[in-house]
Amino acid sequence: MGNNKVHEGIGNEAIYLRIDQLQKGLLQFTDLTNAERLLREYGSEIRYIAPWKKWVVWEETHWQVDSGALIFTNQLQMVRNIYAELYKIADYRDRMEIEKYAIQSESMRWREASVRTAQYIPFLNATVDNLYRNPWLLNVKNGTVEPQPSPLGRRFPS
Known about the structure:
A hairpin with a 2-residue loop joins strand 5 and strand 6. This protein is an alpha+beta fold. The chain is built from five helices and six strands, in the order ααβββαααβββ. It has a four-stranded mixed sheet, with no helix packed on it. A two-stranded antiparallel ribbon has the order 5-6. The protein has helices at residues 2-23, 31-42, 69-81, 92-105, 108-118; strands spanning 46-49, 54-58, 63-65, 125-126, 138-140, 143-145. The relative contact order is 0.13.
């Protein structure tokens, strides 16, 4: 009788863990989870400009308007990074499911769907005005110069 309660608890814990993983997007294989993967892996380098209906991609020193090749190159690399997860999965059935998902995700239909879905992730949406937020940054050939504030304007306590 006591063992049943232990098994009940374990079963319930497993259900709660699974629900938690589903809510975090860790188990399902959808366009949205691929879009969120794109955000995790390339979120600092890509933005979608809705009025233009274009992606822009950070190119070392500036934002480059993308004709489609750059975002899809990043998206394909993101999909191919899924294969590395196979090393971390002990369960054979889970590995097979992830492999199948990765192979399907390489199809143009799935790739287009995940890029289209990523357009609606708020963090990736930008306006032209907020791409270059700091007017004091200066791009040069070998990097970006960020002038330091002048000590002359500071007040020091007496």
